Amino acid sequence: MAVLTEIEEDELDEEPGEVIESAPPQKVGEERQLTTNSPIKKKLLKRGLGWETPNFNDHVTVHYLQTLLDGTMLGSTRVLDSPVTFTLGQSEVFAGLDDGIVTMQKGEVALFTLPAAESGSIPRDTNSVVQFEVELISWITVVDVCKDGGVIKKITEKGKGNDRPGDLDEVLVKYQVALVDGTVVAETPEEGVEFYVKDGHVLPRLPKVIMTMTRGEKAELIFQPQYAFGETGREAGSGFHSIPPDSVLHVNIELVSFKPVINVTGDSMVIKKILKEGDGAFTANEGANVTVSYTAMLEDGTVFEKRGVDETQPLKFVTDEEQVITGLDRAVATMKKGEKAIISIHADYAFGMVEVRENLVIVPPGSKVIYDIEMIDFIKEKAPWELNNTEKVEVAGRKKEEGNLLYKSGKYQRAAKKYDKAADFVSEDGSFGDDEQKLAKSLRISCWLNGAACCLKLNDFAGAVKLCTQVLDVEFHNVKALYRRAQAYIETGDFLLADVDIKKALEVDPQNRELKMLKMKVKQLRADSDKKDAKLYENMFAHKTKRLKVEKEEDEAVKTEMDNVGDSAAPSDGGLIVDSC
């Protein structure tokens, strides 16, 4: 009990100087220390707007009144109504006050009290106390894009929302590039220019800057030479005036808009570019009933099909049912209601290498196709928790039968997904009654067994073992599960485990012909494996014996050679060495 009490107290202890995040908001007229160990006190005189506060290196604009405690004025911007702008963390006048200003919101007025030693604006008399009445008028956010001072971004007008473009997205920007002396060396047309972020534009680091911006954001950029055109500069051409070597460039830029681009399949073979965002947060999932309109084209713009366009009827289909080409199916499942998009589909996800006759033209083999599409409506498939028990069993039974048809057609991947979904609808969640539980259990086991059969066809032997084990955890004597798990173990070379499963299955069904044949197969495979191992060891032993024999022969040869050398070097004059000198 004592230990528990100590742990609870430790968890509640504050570290010295720690700011309690759960502290209530400061009230107008209330004075607080900035932090436990800080010598600076802050008294809130007027609450600010919003929740954002400036950061160090931002350019802040303030009004201030600086006095001693006795009221002696040391400085003020109020006299001439001329606010001052400085960089947070880099001002001598406001040294020591930066920690206070970073806690303020726009329009906030606060009175800061601090020792003179903390202020850089008056002689360091440690007995003096200085007060600053500060109004935070505004600030410009400054971002060190490359973290080395090479590209600095000053946000002059904030954008809307929090979404920022990604590497694949298409952006519309306006910009003007100038030298330090103001000479304009490049600029966009009035309507701006569109490009994909990943393709780059104008300056090598511009895409990195754009990925920090939000829609409608305007900024001033400073590019140091190493992130511009370096020591070589740039000759005039391609919309540029000449740029001297080692030039610092100033860029005014606006991110007008961007179109999100989604790599639907992860292999860049189905790409969706969103032209108009849809409504809400939900997308059409697998198994949803969708209604779409589109114009389908070849890469050269040749239209081969229209649905819901020019008096044609929209297309209605169920996703993940192979009712349309795979790429369209996959992309539509990611769309929201009202969303408009351009979907580019590689031939592998379209019509493949076959020629297809569509309504308007023939689609040649290997064609990439493009769909200009709108999601009109969809009805998502209900999740298991949205159904009662009877409905869950009905849906699971239907999906199982759909899986059976797919299995018979050789579509094992899709069949496996059907069985998996069916099992989810009758999972053991404690909601079924006794009679319902028996039926749910039977369906669940059947789906796991069928899923294991699909895994064997797809060479997913680990998956087969997992599903069969799930069955055996419920029915330890299930012959089909033991048989299929043994098949998977054989394929992975685990003959001992396969033999154990076969023996267990034969105890339940000793006359089963398939089990007996599988037992013979395992016996033969184990015998072949033993022979192979024996041969391997024999070769290893023979190699070792041969190596030892060679080493012995080499040793004997060396010994003989040394003996010969010894004989030839022996003196012939009774052991006396005659000095030739």
Explain the layout of strands and helices.
Layout: H1 2-12, E1 31-33, E2 41-46, E3 59-68, E4 73-76, E5 84-87, H2 98-101, E6 109-115, E7 129-140, E8 142-144, E9 151-157, E10 170-179, E11 184-187, E12 193-196, H3 206-210, E13 218-223, E14 249-259, E15 261-263, E16 270-276, E17 289-298, E18 303-307, E19 315-318, H4 326-332, E20 340-345, E21 356-357, E22 362-363, E23 369-379, H5 389-408, H6 412-425, H7 434-457, H8 461-474, H9 479-491, H10 495-508, H11 513-569
Antiparallel strand pairs: 1-2, 2-6, 3-4, 3-5, 3-7, 6-7, 8-9, 9-13, 10-11, 10-12, 10-14, 13-14, 15-16, 16-20, 17-18, 17-19, 17-23, 20-23, 21-22
Helix pairs in contact: 5-6, 5-7, 6-7, 7-8, 7-9, 8-9, 9-10, 10-11
EC number: 5.2.1.8
GO molecular function: peptidyl-prolyl cis-trans isomerase activity
Protein name: peptidylprolyl isomerase
| Structural class by sheet pairing and helices | alpha+beta
Helical content (DSSP H or I, runs of 4+): 25-40%
- According to DSSP, the number of beta strands is 23
What is the radius of gyration? 39 Å
Terminal-residue CA separation: 101 Å
Count of helix runs: 11
Proportion in β-strands: 15-25%
Provide the low-confidence segments as ranges.
1-20, 568-581
Tertiary shape: elongated
pLDDT averaged residue by residue: 86
What summary fits the major beta sheet?
7 strands, antiparallel
Pfam family, one: TPR_8
Family: Belongs to the FKBP-type PPIase family.
Organism: Vicia faba (Broad bean)
EC number: 5.2.1.8
